[in-house]
Design goal:
- The protein is mainly alpha-helical.
- The chain has four helices and no strands.
- The relative contact order is 0.23.
- This is Helix-turn-helix domain-containing protein.
Length: about 70
């Protein structure tokens, strides 16, 4: 999965919308969805991880099954 998909999954578990997450962090609207094509700074990824109660590694993990 991409970082965006991992964030989307974590948001569902935390019962927060991506829009609400962006607002809480002071990010511009739809900025997180652009992370599929643009690489975010580590400080932004860390801020998202902190709010969602996950690790940066969780957000960066490639969870696609090779088999």
């Amino acid at each position: 999965m991409s970082i965006y998909e991992n964030i989307k999954t974590a948001c569902k578990k935390s019962e927060i919308s991506i829009s609400a997450l962006e607002n809480r962090l002071g990010f511009s609207r739809s900025s997180i969805c652009k992370w599929d094509t643009n690489t975010p700074g580590v400080d932004k990824v860390k801020a998202v991880a902190d709010i969602l109660g996950v690790t940066v590694d969780d957000l960066l993990a490639d969870t696609q099954d090779d088999g």
